[in-house]
Amino acid sequence: MNISENLRMLVYSSLFAALIAAGAFLAIPIGPVPIVLQNMFVLMAPLLLGTKWGSAALILYLLMGACGFPVFAGGTGGLGRILGPTGGYLLGYIPAVCITGFISVKAGKTFWGDVIAMLIGSLIVYAAGVPWLKVATAMPWEKAFAVGIYPFLIGDILKIVAATYCVKLLRPMLKNNEVNVANA
Amino acid sequence: MAKATQFSYRPGNFVLYKLDVRCKIICICLLSIMMTMANFSHLSLISAILLWLLYRSGINFCVLIWELKYFFLILLFVFTIRSLVTPGEPIPILKILGIDFFEKTNIGMVNHITITIEGVIDGGKVAWRFLVIMIMGLLFSCSTQTSSLKVAVAWFLKPFPLIPEKRVGVMVSLFVRFLPLILEKAHEVSDAQKSRCAHLQKNPVKRIKNITIPLLTKVFSCADTLAIAMASRCYNEDRTEQKILKSGYEFYFYAGTVALYAFILFYRAPLFLH
């Protein structure tokens, strides 16, 4: 059966949007702050699906959240979360996904290229999230950094390392699936 | 999944359930924006209306509070930060009791911080605003079917030239289809890993990998099956759309929203309610 690439990517993109949403509920209890897989899936989306479909997945996720679906961290949703104190992180995901995908492609989808792309993507999320948090809670810069970045740094590094391995393993699998599905 | 979607759609007869989805989205957006200007008197009125709507929608308040427990933590955080960093008059009772707060800055100096009256008022107002917006979102998700949401999303995206609104509509329904599936598979993977004592693994990267790789392999395989099923049913974007049904009460909701807007803009309460 001839399955168009568009249809396959459309399904994958919706799947990744759902994965990002489900990532808010999937926490691995390591240390005092459990590792939530959401931002790992956000950064993996452009690496596995490409910039265009990765961004589509993320925009769909935000759209569903804005429409009131309980997809944001803590099982909540609504425009209030996007306009709320942690909204900067959510909106920061959009440029982060685009730039992560772009860098990964430019670096030839290599292991280190992916690591650098995800590191820069994470920095962009913080660059959008922390000033927003500062404005929404009216706290000084050093406090905004203390509550908005420092507790998550180690978790983020672990997630980037794990995500790079996962992407390395999953890329060939998706390529195989493409062939299998096309021949189905 | 039941845990994650406690506030997913449930059938009901109340007017909110029958209301045009577009009307609900427009009203929520307008009310969310006007929340930035609301003071305590406005918030009291809007909260009273929302509580009445929650009651009439048949939502259990205890379940509501339990489900929002993490959100309350965020609100508590916002409230605490605002109370501590807003400049103003310190709360007299804390001074009398000799309660003082200290913090260490990153350069090793000790700063003196106090909870101020202005901070507590400001923190309370901001936390209340977020809570009101959150409850509006919950009311929306409880009273809206996914199929109508899909049509409404496509309707809103129609005027934008570069966005394929029908495709987005399909993606919305696929998203809703996949979310419970992923949570179910994640539960399966987690149980399978536990039975292999993977939770005793000390290396965090390995623990993340042990969950992520099987989960993604499973869900991608499901996605492939779905893509084949869609293609075998001759899927294309030229489909007959579901019609958006109107209840006839939309005008009252728009009028109510405009009235609330006017109330927030023009009514200024006594000073202590600001």
Folded structure, characterized:
The complex is a heterodimer of chains A (about 180) and B (about 270). Chain A is an all-alpha fold and about 180 residues long. Chain A has one domain (about 5-185): Arp2/3 complex 21 kDa subunit ARPC3 (Orthogonal Bundle), CATH 1.10.1760.20. Chain A is built from 8 helices and 2 strands. In chain A, strands 1-2 form a two-stranded antiparallel ribbon. In chain A, a hairpin with a 6-residue loop joins strand 1 (about 25-30) and strand 2 (about 35). In chain A, helix 5 packs antiparallel against helix 6. Chain B is mainly alpha-helical and about 270 residues long. Chain B has a domain at about 10-145 and about 245-274. Chain B has helices at about 15-20, 20-35, 40-55, 60-65, 70-85, 90-95, 115-145, 145-155, 165-195, 205-230, 250-265, and strands at about 100-105, 110-115. A two-stranded antiparallel sheet of chain B has the order 1-2. In chain B, a hairpin with a 5-residue loop joins strand 1 and strand 2. Chain B starts with 14 loop residues before the first helix and ends in an 8-residue tail after the last helix. Residues about 100-110 of chain B have low confidence and may be disordered. At the A-B interface, helix 1, helix 3, helix 4, helix 7 and helix 8 of A face helix 2, helix 5, helix 7, helix 9 and helix 10 of B.
Brief account:
The complex is a heterodimer of chains A (184) and B (274). Chain A is an all-alpha fold and 184 residues long.
Query: What would you call the structural class of chain B?
Result: mainly alpha
Helix content of chain B: 55-70%
Gross morphology of chain B is flat
Task: Give the strand line-up of the largest sheet of chain A.
Answer: 1-2
Major sheet of chain B, described briefly?
2 strands, antiparallel
Distance between the termini of chain B: 41 Å
Chain-averaged pLDDT of chain B: 79
Q: Strand-residue fraction of chain B?
A: under 5%
The chain pair with the largest interface is: A-B, 72 and 77 residues
Query: In which range does the helix fraction of chain A lie?
Result: over 70%
Query: Helical element count of chain A?
Result: 8
Largest sheet of chain A: 2 strands, antiparallel
Element-by-element helix/strand order of chain B: HHHHHHEEHHHHH
Could you say which overall geometry of chain A the principal axes of the C-alpha atoms support?
A: globular
Order of helices and strands of chain A: HEEHHHHHHH
Tell me the strand order in the biggest sheet of chain B: 1-2
Low-pLDDT sequence parts of chain A? none
Distance from first to last alpha carbon of chain A: 5 Å
